[in-house]
Amino acid sequence: MQVVSRTAVEAAIGDVCRTLTLDGYVARYEVQAETLRFDVEAGSGACEDCLSPKPVLHRMLDQALQRAGIGLQVQISYPGEGARPRNRGTA
């Protein structure tokens, strides 16, 4: 089992989180075992047309993690879909 620091994950996916923030969304995430649980919440005034389809966001996160040498599976939840990870992403 790979041990991944929160700092390494934040550095790897920080650009994705910042982009979501610019579009009015909040990214929350946590690492559970070997999975990155990534939850996207709509803020007030969120640009609905700006939110990429899940497969696109999944690919962006997966590629960012791979570039950083982090081998985590990615699970994404979009607004209204489910449980929220406790930790708020960097933005």
Care to describe what's here?
There is one protein chain. This protein has about 90 residues and is an alpha+beta fold. Helices cover about 35% and strands about 25% of the residues. It has a single domain, classed as GMP Synthetase, Chain A, domain 3. A 3-stranded mixed beta sheet has the order 1-2-3. A hairpin with a 2-residue loop joins strand 1 and strand 2. The mean pLDDT is about 90.
Q: What name does CATH use for the topology?
A: GMP Synthetase, Chain A, domain 3
CATH homologous group name? Fe-S cluster assembly (FSCA)
Q: Gap between N and C termini, in Å?
A: 28 Å
Topology pattern, helix = H, strand = E: HEEHE
Q: How much beta, percentage-wise?
A: 15-25%
Spans of 5+ residues with little confidence (pLDDT < 50)?
none
The name of the CATH architecture is: 2-Layer Sandwich
**Global morphology:** globular
The overall pLDDT average reads 88
Radius of gyration: 12 Å
Summed up, the helix count is: 2
How helical, in percent, are the residues?
A: 25-40%
What's the domain count?
1
List keywords for this structure.
single chain, 91 residues, alpha+beta, GMP Synthetase, Chain A, domain 3, three-stranded mixed beta sheet, 2 helices
Indicate the topology.
Blueprint lengths: L5 H17 L2 E8 L2 E8 L11 H14 L5 E5 L14
Parallel strand pairs: 2-3
Antiparallel strand pairs: 1-2
Helix pairs in contact: 1-2
